[in-house]
Write a structure and sequence with these properties.
By secondary structure, the chain is of the alpha+beta class. The protein has a single domain, classed as Lipocalin, CATH 2.40.128. 27% of the residues lie in helices and 44% in strands. The chain has 3 helices and 8 strands. An 8-stranded antiparallel beta barrel has the order 1-2-3-4-5-6-7-8. The longest helix is centred in the N-terminal third of the chain and has 19 residues.
């Protein structure tokens, strides 16, 4: 009987913990900024300095606001865009549809209430991994 009570208490505890954890679609809500960008694309040596300056500027001036209603507002450098976002059921695929009709699908590598890491793959096979941190 004591074993049964312990089992019930453990199951109750696990149920409480599971119900308290935030879903990926709740964790993504808020405003984020770019913390890091890595790419497998080969940057020619003569363009590396310009590329680094462009990435540093993008990190400073970017923001991504994921709203609870599924809308998205982005600012990268001086370009502002709006659209809609969605996560698949397991929280591993982020789909963004900009208001201009362009759709982008990214693979979520990591998601928490303070950090999102996702990867995009270009038509040429190059992968870009972007890390966002909560503002």
């Amino acid at each position: 009987m004591k074993r049964f009570v312990n089992y019930v208490l453990i199951m109750l505890f696990v149920g409480i913990i599971a119900s308290c954890s935030e879903s990926p679609s709740k964790m993504i809500i808020g405003t984020w900024k770019i913390d890091n960008i890595e790419t497998t694309e080969e940057i020619p040596e003569e363009h590396k300095e310009m590329y680094k300056k462009m990435m540093d500027e993008m990190k400073k001036s970017s923001s991504f606001t994921f709203n609870e209603d599924g809308t998205l507002e982005t600012k990268i450098s001086e370009k502002n865009t709006t659209g809609k976002w969605s996560l698949n059921d397991d929280g591993k695929t982020l789909t963004v549809e900009e208001d201009n009709g362009k759709t982008n699908t990214s693979t979520i590598q990591e998601i928490s209430s303070s950090k999102i890491v996702f990867t995009d793959e270009s038509d040429k096979g190059a992968k870009t991994t972007i890390t966002l941190v909560k503002q």
